[in-house]
Write a structure and sequence with these properties.
The complex is a heterodimer of chains A (157) and B (68). With 157 residues, chain A is α+β, with helices and mostly antiparallel strands. Chain A contains 7 helices and 7 strands, in the order H-E-H-E-H-E-E-H-H-E-H-E-E-H. In chain A, helix 6 crosses helix 7. In chain B, strands 3-2-4 form a 3-stranded parallel beta sheet, with no helix packed on it. The chains are: A alpha+beta (157), B alpha/beta (68).
Chain lengths: 157, 68
């Protein structure tokens, strides 16, 4: 639809017309805000905890453990230089032997949800699968934050 | 000729060139949710009169839901 609108504007005489072809689905999936009746408040992105700790593959496990503890968290996401999620260090992985590398200790490819997902749908899934939290990533795989079930349930009443 | 752009270019045009966002979906979908600051000119109503709401000197960025 937007290519036709862009062509229409050009035919009317507008000379600087751009077509954001991926549209608002892409905008929302990137965790960017939307306005309107539904807006962002009913979406996962607005409720994700964005201060969840992150680490890199080449960091010593002992240092990560201490950093996560000081931040009062019990999990940490392993990301690359672009912020793309590579894995997750959960509570037990963080207590692994210091000789292990992050690569060896982490859970690879954790299941993720998009910031644009509807909160009601995600709460239903968390209850069904008995999940206490879910990582939120953009469609490009970049970490947005962690959606805690308690936050999601509170927001949906 | 209109130029297809991605999200990063949308953000740049908004921040640096005072771009104008236009959602061309029907009003109900616009009211449901839209990009911040976007105005609604549904494709079915898009003519020279409706386009008078737009500044011809600034970039115009049109969008809908996705690759429709």
């Amino acid at each position: 639809m937007s290519p036709r609108a862009a062509a229409r504007l050009a035919s009317i005489g507008f000379t600087r017309v751009f077509d954001y072809v991926a549209g608002k689905a892409d905008w929302g999936a990137a965790g960017l805000p939307l306005e309107g009746k539904s807006g962002s408040a009913t979406r996962v992105g607005a409720h994700a905890r964005r201060d969840v700790p992150t680490c890199r593959l080449d960091e010593p496990l002992a240092e990560i453990r201490e950093r996560v503890r000081r931040a009062d968290w019990d999990t940490c996401f392993v990301i690359d230089e672009e912020g793309v999620v590579l894995g997750r260090l959960g509570r037990s992985a963080l207590q692994s032997d210091d000789e292990l590398s992050v690569e060896q200790a982490m859970t690879r490819g954790p299941s993720t949800i998009r910031p644009s997902a509807r909160l009601n749908d995600v709460v239903a899934r968390m209850r069904r699968q008995n999940l206490s939290n879910l990582p939120v990533t953009t469609s490009d795989g970049q970490l947005v934050g962690l959606l805690a079930r308690e936050d999601a349930e509170r927001a949906t009443g | 000729m209109p130029t297809p752009i991605d999200r990063e270019e949308v953000q740049r045009l908004l921040a640096e060139e005072n771009g104008q966002l236009v959602e061309v979906l029907p009003p109900g979908e616009y009211e449901h949710e839209h990009l911040p600051g976007a105005i609604n000119i549904p494709l079915k109503t898009l003519d020279a009169e409706a386009a008078r709401r737009l500044d011809r000197e600034r970039p115009v960025i049109v969008y809908c839901h996705d690759y429709q």
